[in-house]
Amino acid sequence: PSFRKHLGLLEKKKDYKLRADDYRKKQKYLRDLRKKALEKNPDEFYYKMTRVKLQDGVHVIKETKEEVTPEQLKLMRTQDVKYVEMKRVAEAKKIERLKSELHLLDFQGKQQKKHVFFFDTKKEVEQFDIATHLRTAPELVDRVFNRPTIETLQKEKVKGVNNQTRLKQIAKERQKQYNCLTQRIEREKKLFVIAQKIQTRKDLLDKTQKVKVKKETVNSPAIYKFESRRKR
Questions:
Q1: C or N: which end of the chain has fewer Cβ atoms within 10 Å?
Q2: Looking at residue 106, what is its pLDDT?
Q3: What is the pTM of this model?
Q4: What keywords are annotated for this sequence in UniProt (predicted)?
């Protein structure tokens, strides 16, 4: 009609029905919410109350500690404990190989091994000088590898890389190996935790009476105390 021409084309019936149904659905949902709010019993218990506390008139949900990460859950559901343990052992062997290549005593900077010297008298202990005893320079005492003696330093020429570009390249490669070692150590720890959690779940299938001693966390499995039974 000419009197509504400025409004454009008429809406199709199916489009109007979709829009009307959506509008009625939303209005019904609002009515139900108003009715639920009016008929709500303030003294009624529901389970969410155990996780919610009131602060300044506002309900705040207590954050629960994450027990299992999605990555751990996926691996525990799809893989067996033997497979996880096999991967963990493989990672541990690669870590040991990398440590031997890097001449690493301890990744956190603490020595795993100690060099013990024995003396007969206290006077020898007081006069003891480790550099003199090892016959090396004081600057090289802290080294556990490539620690030449003073005689060797006097006889032999200094061998190694003198080019600064090559030194930077070697340092970059070494840092790359250290980063790889860090990642493998973290992966080995995660696999160890997952293997423990899978084994704990398998142990829980036993019908022996048990009591939970410690809850499960992201970095550790749950700890249970099982009733002791005498085996025949």
A1: C
A2: 43
A3: 0.49
A4: Nucleus, rRNA processing
